[in-house]
Structures are given as C-alpha cells and as structure tokens.
Amino acid sequence: METLGPRIKQLRLEANLNKAALARRVGVSDVTISYWESGAIKQIGHERLVALAGALGCPLSALLDNDTSRPAPLFLRADGPPPWEGTEAKGIELPIELTPGQRWDGDCHLVTPAPGEALDYLNAGDLAAIAPSEIFRQPGLYLIEEAGRLALRRVQQDAKGELTFQRQDDATPTPYTPDCRLLGKVVALWRLETP
C-alpha cells in the first residue's frame, strides 16, 4: 500500500478538490488527508476507503489497485453517454457459468451506479455486467437511452413482435418510441448485501 498516498493526492487533484473539501466529504480532518497523502498514516479502514472513493468519484479499486490492466467498474449516470463510450475502458469476458440462460457473445463492462444516482433495477453498491448491443437478443434487463437519459428497463417483445419497456415500479410495459434505443444487455447482476 506504499503508493496509496500519491494515488489519493492524484485522484483528489483530478476531482478538483482541496484537502479541506475532501476532508469534509469523507468526515475527517484535512490534517488526516495530509497524513494519508504523505504516507504518514498507512492503514486506512474499509469504511474510510469507501467514503474516500465516493468523495473522489472513483471506484474503490482505483485507490487500492495499482494494476491498471484489470478493468474497474464504471460509474453509470442517468445523464451522459454509456460509461464505456469515450474511454479506454477494457471489457471483460464472463465465464458462461456466471451467465446462465444468456445468449450473447463478446465482452461486457462492469458498471455500478455513480454516487448519488438512483436507477431502476440497480441500487447503490450493486454491480452489473452489461454487454454493449443495440440489438434485442432476448427478454431481460437492458441499458437503454430514453428521451436522452440512460435507464435500465426490462425489455421484451409483445405479441406483434414490437419491443416494450418496463420500469421497475410499473407493471405496465410501455411500447417502443423513436426516443428509445438499446445500448446494452445486462448479462449478470450482483446485489450488495446489507446486514
């Protein structure tokens, strides 16, 4: 963990935060932030690391893992493009055992809701593997663009073969409209267990 301090400083500067602002977000003093960045305090508890990652707007792995060859979960935001667009984000290939009943080939991306984001079907701390695709492959959860915003919807075909979209809190599917487009199929979903 000898490179944790410089990583904290680098991520803080990238987030345009001074030490005092980061300290307020994490719930510690700015002196503690200085100690973390300098390496004077080498052990940081899990709760503080999670708060630090949230305050910096980065995945926990960006703080802990110096190996950038491994893909980290991407933050999913309702406003903006799919999280893998415009980045050097690496996709992963999931073993077939982790995706029973799914028909898809190719890479997928691990995503989690960005701090403060509220999304149907995906709660804070949950992790989803999404295979980018603009093609309907089978009924299930999809990342879609709807009226310029990203959303997760249950997508299926009606009796006429038309796509329908269903929100988490609405049992009535809505028909396809020109302002909807498929962006990716959710091929696996892991829920954060809370005690």
TrEMBL record:
InterPro entries: Cro/C1-type_HTH, Lambda_DNA-bd_dom_sf. It comes from the Bacteria. Residues 8-63 form the HTH cro/C1-type domain. Pfam families: HTH_3. This is HTH cro/C1-type domain-containing protein. It comes from Halomonas halophila.
